[in-house]
Amino acid sequence: MTRFEPGDAAAVEDLFDAVAPRYDQLNDLLSLGLHRLWKRQALAWVDPQPGQRCLDLCCGTGDLALLLAARVRPGGTVLGLDAAAAPLQQAERRGRCRPWLPLQWQQGDALATGLTDGWADGAVMAYGLRNLSDAAAGLAELRRVLRPGGRAAVLDFNRLEDRSGQFGAAAAAAFQRLYLRQVVVPVARRAGLEEHYAYLEASLARFATGREQEQLARSAGFRHAEHRPLAGGLMGLLRLQA
User: Fold this and answer.
1) Over the stretch 126-137, which tens digit does the pLDDT of each residue have?
2) Of 23, 26, 60, 221, which residue is most buried, by most CB within 10 angstroms?
3) Whole-angstrom Cα distance, residue 230 to residue 125?
4) Domains of the chain (ranges plus CATH)?
């Protein structure tokens, strides 16, 4: 049993502080580099333009913030916000290596960003919604800070729907469990991070399905909400428009 309980904001912050030094390396290894493709698919939906102001919510080590910043030049700006200090430090180091990019970093709560209404022209969140103590509140805050008509993309593991009697859905769910237990956790164990990555399966068990995410997003005020499975259903991309 992992000591990192899903929904416990302080525990999740501790988890990401601990994994920050190895996070990018493990992401590349565990996804065979495919997480970069998924993030670019999220970026393609948001379609950031020069001069725009964009938000990377739960920015972690800054992958998406860096991509956004390259697209909003000249005249734009990107804010990367995360609750955990260690990933933000990694993001700041990466940003300093690209001083031409219009980047800002802020430690803060995704449920209460402190930004003004409609602050962002576009927004992204990768592997953040599942880790919030209240996904509905997170989507409501995302909608609040996004201008009318602005787009957001939420990338995360996909919680496969339990459809009894449907072999395809059952097989996909079984493969996802196998991947998490027989690939992710053993690789993390070698890095001394077994409990941190065992948390993935526990957090996924309480996460909303794609259909539920669409419903939560519409309740939060998004006029367009569409969840698309990626990587054979292992991952999901929630495409939103305010």
Assistant:
1) 999 999 999 999
2) 60
3) 16
4) 9-241 (3.40.50.150)
